[in-house]
Design a protein that fits this description.
The structure holds 2 protein chains of 2 kinds.
Chain A: H1 24-28, E1 44-50, E2 56-62, H2 64-67, E3 72-77, E4 84-85, E5 91-97, H3 100-109, E6 111-116, E7 133-141, H4 144-150, E8 153-161, E9 164-165, E10 173-179, E11 182-187, H5 192-203, E12 210-212, H6 228-240, E13 246-249, H7 252-258, E14 261-262, E15 265-273, E16 279-288, E17 310-317, H8 332-349, H9 354-360, H10 368-382, H11 384-387, E18 399-410, E19 417-423, E20 429-432, H12 442-454, E21 461-464, H13 481-504, E22 515-518, E23 521-524, E24 527-533, H14 534-539, E25 546-552, E26 565-576, E27 582-592, H15 599-618, E28 649-655, H16 658-661, H17 676-688, H18 699-706
Chain B: H1 13-19, E1 39-43, E2 46-50, H2 84-93, E3 105-111, E4 114-120, H3 126-133, E5 152-155, E6 158-161, E7 174-176, H4 178-181, H5 189-196, H6 206-219, H7 225-231, H8 242-258
The chains are: A alpha+beta, B alpha+beta.
Chain lengths: ~700, ~260
């Protein structure tokens, strides 16, 4: 068996270089085809009839008028009369028609009668939740009562982080076309290898009958793993239309209501500590919702998991609103926010520098040295010593500045992945994986690993992903992709290279183990003059290409990939105390990482995550209306995302060091999205002297906090 | 009424409320029947409505409610937007619109210098005409309400949300889409700059940003960092590629100025 381990840092020619993403030009020039860009001959358009009520029972459905609308092709009842519906936006009927506009006409002509039932949609006040709240049992470690009795400092606070929606730029949906009993399926998915089987299960078909194709996808963030009810409806509409292709993507309002969200988390937290800030007790009463199933307890205390003497209570609050889905680092941003704000408030109460308090308590984390190093690094980059002041900026005027800290942890070890490498006698190389590129740069890192292994330029590698005919590779979630695909690609290309070396060895008068592939040549180790050009070496294969597999098994990663990273972010903000507007001056990301294959795209993950965190800290939230039971901000005018001008300076420091490099490849999609909300919220408190308890920190909340109304 | 015009900074809702500007939200198919072909333009101070109403007696009543969004965004970049005075003059000068629809009507669009004859219902937006009838899918449908900029194309050189203009209104105008940028022998310097600066992730918003940047650089040949931040405020990205986009636009501006690729 070849030695698959990564080449030493100093010997790498491709891995570790700043490579522009391979699909950058096709995306920037509009050529890349996303699922929603697929236009098939004779294609119909689908539209959904959704329930306008947050809680209702369907009394009757009449598609008669719809069937008479111009251009009508098919209708499919997705939810039968009698069914109880638990949130607004639930899919009731799907229709297809000749054009997008006519499909909407047909959907509007469908008559559905509902028996409207009582609803509950707002969870932020636990006292009002009544029977909708279900408490889980109290969790106690140590002796919290004694800890709080003996504490020299006790700090208490209320903190909340609301429901967010994923806001994928490309809505959920698909194009589906039948060819006999075979189906062509163009989804927008994080799960190319698995989504066909998932749809097959819904349709009671053999998984082999579904061919999944996806060149590009427009964002998932955890919400695009399953095929969903609308894919099955789309398939039915196509089947009823004689197999004609049907395009059915959710409109934006429906997308924001039902295609996934991140659960809210609220908590009253009490911390006890010694005078020096060493925490001695934790008490929390938390509640959350992720829809009709409620929401689980976040993993608090976060990162500082070993705080002694804890008492924790949690209630799951059921609301009649769209269901939660995984959202980039599920529960971590909330847990980080709740924990880091409580620690920051403790530091303020004890008149201590929070940087010291976070460092003092690092012993309660699983990786104290990493966090202490990162806190110091981030502090240096933000100029903490120069800029920090105790809570409440003493500067004159109405612009107050402040600093705040957030911390993170995440796994990120590689998922199961299979790769097929094909080396043709003409020297051309293909690598095939049933994977997907969510925009993280997966295509590019696959090519880089293959190029590194085969001694070729990146452009010589043809990467084939986005098709379920390629070898099965894991879904892209939890930052597991880069570890999985890099390891399987490394193994497959190395296995294929062995065959090339074996074929070339006689011509070079040596044995395969004495050969290496470097710089576009196959050469004798230590005697580079004895060499064959890559093409000439591959020509020795004869007429048959070499096809070799490589598999990454997370249970036996062979040093290629591990998980578990830490991260610290510090934000420097300016708050206008007259308008309440918060601006990011500078935001520092210090990210622990393993072996970085492409620093350029790895940094982009950190920049993007920080920006997504800024959105959550300052702008975005789902706003539910108890009166109507509906989501009020179902568009991008009122569901606020940060624009390009809202983002200040962001500094990313990837902690690339030999000792981290030795850990192998670790995913970076989630970790940097965890700390920003905590960092920004704490920076605002440091600036204005009071805590804004519930994010997003909008101007009205800042002004209310300043006036003591928070 | 206030609608997020191109170039406007996204402002928290509370601030909008605090400013006291009235605003409302146009919903699909809520247009009065007699206001066929009416146009709404946003100006810097809010909005000016100039409807092309049917003559009160002469015109036949439309059989169905008309367009779902018969409005055009005034989308000046860089300078913000047209002053309301200009809009008023334009409204005065607008020819009386012939009544067409609700069924398909022949229309001709000039896209990237090429004429396309189509038969479309008047309510079809320029975005849907491009994507569904011409297979020009570079402009993306994201918000479909003029808030995110993913559908940005150039109409007579100015950036326009193609979801918020009817195809029928774009007749006789020079429509430039992202597909038109890449047709030359060399990639557009903006595309190269976006690639060099890793200014895309999922890439779904990227063509809209490139077209917005194209219009922005057309009006601002040597922008500084702050101007780039303000000038591209009419587009949204969820992956968070703003840092790369800022650098890319500055790099492209330098290249165009240097004549390297212009």
């Amino acid at each position: 068996m070849p030695d698959y381990s990564w080449p030493p840092m100093e010997n790498r020619r491709v891995i570790g270089r700043r490579m522009s993403r391979l699909d950058g030009a096709s995306k920037a020039s509009g050529r890349a085809k996303y699922g929603s860009d697929i236009n098939r001959p004779g294609m119909l358009f689908g539209a959904l009839v959704t329930c306008p009520h947050a809680h209702a029972r369907i009394k009757s459905i009449d598609t008669g008028a719809a069937e008479k609308t111009k251009g009508f092709a098919a209708a499919h009842i997705m939810t039968e009369p009698g069914a109880e519906i638990q949130w607004a936006g639930w899919e009731v009927v799907a229709v297809a028609a000749e054009t997008e506009e006519l499909a909407r006409d047909a959907a509007r002509a469908v008559k559905v009668e509902y028996e409207v039932l009582p609803h509950f949609v707002r969870e932020e006040d636990l006292a009002k939740a009544g029977a909708q709240a279900k408490a889980s049992g109290e969790q106690i470690t140590g002796d919290p009562d004694q800890a709080f009795q003996q504490a020299e400092v006790v700090s208490e606070g209320l903190y909340g982080i609301p429901v967010l929606t994923h806001c994928c730029m490309e809505a959920h949906g698909q194009v589906i076309e039948w060819k006999g009993d075979q189906m062509e399926y163009w989804p927008s998915t994080q799960n190319v290898s698995g989504i066909g089987g998932d749809l097959a299960k819904q349709l009671k078909l053999p998984a082999t009958n579904i061919h999944v194709m996806q060149e590009a996808m427009g964002g998932g963030f955890g919400s695009k793993f399953s095929s969903d009810r609308w894919a099955a409806a789309c398939a039915e509409l196509s089947r009823k239309s004689g197999g004609r292709a049907v395009k059915l993507f959710l409109d934006r309002a429906t997308e924001l209501q039902i295609a996934g969200n991140r659960p809210s988390h609220f908590a009253r937290i009490k911390l006890g500590a010694k005078k020096d800030g060493a925490i001695t007790g934790w008490q929390s009463e938390s509640w959350s919702t992720g829809g009709i199933t409620g929401g689980g307890m976040p993993q608090i205390p976060y990162v500082y998991t070993n705080i002694p003497n804890q008492r924790k209570n949690h209630s799951a609050v059921r609301v009649n609103a769209g269901p939660q889905r995984a959202w980039r680092a599920p529960n971590h941003p909330a847990a980080s926010y709740l924990t880091c704000c409580a620690i920051d408030d403790l530091a303020a109460k004890a008149n201590l520098d929070p940087l010291e308090v976070f460092a003092t308590n690092a012993g309660y984390t699983a990786r104290a040295e990493v966090y202490r190093y990162q806190l110091q690094k981030a502090a240096a980059l933000i100029e903490w010593k120069k800029l920090w002041h105790p809570r409440g900026d003493p500067a004159k005027g109405h612009i107050k500045r402040g600093l705040g800290i957030g911390v993170a942890t995440w796994g990120g070890a590689g998922h199961p992945s299979n790769c097929r490498a094909v080396i043709h006698p003409d020297g051309s190389v293909e690598v095939e994986l049933g994977s997907q590129d969510l925009g993280t740069g997966t295509r590019t890192i696959i090519a880089m690993v293959a190029a590194e292994t085969l001694g070729l330029p990146v452009g010589a590698i043809k990467v084939k992903i986005g098709d379920n005919k390629y070898p099965q590779s894991g879904a892209s979630g939890g930052s597991t992709t880069v570890g999985g695909v890099s390891a399987s690609t490394r193994k497959a290309t190395m296995n294929a290279l062995e065959k090339v070396l074996a074929a070339a060895a006689p011509a070079l008068g040596t044995t395969p183990d004495q050969l290496e592939a470097v710089g576009g040549k196959v050469q004798v180790k230590g005697a580079p003059a004895k060499a064959l050009a890559w093409r000439a070496a591959c020509a020795k294969l004869g007429v048959t290409p070499v096809t070799e597999m490589g598999a990454h098994d997370p249970k036996n990663p062979m040093g290629l990939s591990t998980g578990n990273v830490g991260g610290v972010q510090i934000s420097h903000v300016a708050v206008d105390t007259e308008t309440g507007i918060v601006k990011i001056i500078k935001h520092v990301v210090v990210q622990d990482c393993g072996l970085i294959i492409n620093p350029k795209t790895a940094e982009s993950q950190c920049y993007g995550a920080a920006i997504m965190g800024i959105c959550g800290a300052l702008y975005e939230e789902r706003v539910m209306d108890q009166q109507t039971g509906r989501m009020l901000n179902v568009d991008f005018d009122y569901y606020k995302l940060a624009g390009i001008a809202d983002i200040g300076e962001i500094v990313v420091h990837l902690d690339i060091r030999p000792e981290h490099d030795k850990r192998g490849v670790i995913g970076l999609g989630e970790p940097p999205v965890v700390p920003p909300v905590a960092a920004i919220a704490n920076a605002v408190a440091n600036a204005i002297g009071v805590r804004v308890p519930v994010v997003p920190v909008t101007p009205d909340k800042v002004l209310a906090a300043l006036e003591g109304r928070a | 009424m206030l609608i997020g015009e191109r170039g406007a900074v996204k402002t928290p809702l509370a601030v909008l409320v605090a400013t006291g500007l009235p605003f409302c939200y146009i919903q699909r198919d809520r247009v009065e029947p007699r206001q066929t072909g009416f146009i709404i333009r946003t100006g810097k101070e809010g909005v000016l409505v100039s409807s092309v109403k049917e003559p009160p007696e002469a015109a036949p009543k439309p059989k169905v409610r008309f367009s779902r969004r018969g409005f055009i965004r005034g989308v000046g970049l860089g300078s913000g937007a047209l002053g309301s005075g200009v809009l008023h003059q334009e409204a005065q000068a607008a020819p009386a619109a012939a009544v067409v629809g609700p069924g398909p009507a022949p229309i001709t669009l000039q896209v990237n210098g090429k004429l396309h004859k189509l038969n479309l219902e008047p309510r079809v937006t320029l975005l849907d005409a491009l994507r569904n009838h011409l297979d020009h899918t570079g402009a993306k449908k994201v918000c479909d309400r003029g808030a995110c900029g993913a559908c940005t194309v150039l109409v007579d050189g100015r950036a326009v949300y193609s979801c918020s203009i009817l195809a029928i209104e774009a007749q006789g105008k020079n429509i430039q889409t992202i597909e038109g940028l890449a047709s030359g022998p060399k990639p557009d310097p903006l595309v190269s700059a976006f690639v060099n600066n890793d200014a895309s992730q999922c890439g779904f918003c990227t063509p809209g940003f490139v077209m917005a940047a194209k219009a922005f650089l057309g009006a601002n040949r040597a922008p500084n960092y702050e101007q780039v931040k303000q000038g591209l405020g009419g587009n949204l990205c969820r992956c968070g590629t703003y840092m790369g986009i800022r650098r890319a636009v500055l790099e492209a501006a330098k290249q165009v100025q240097g004549g390297k690729n212009a």
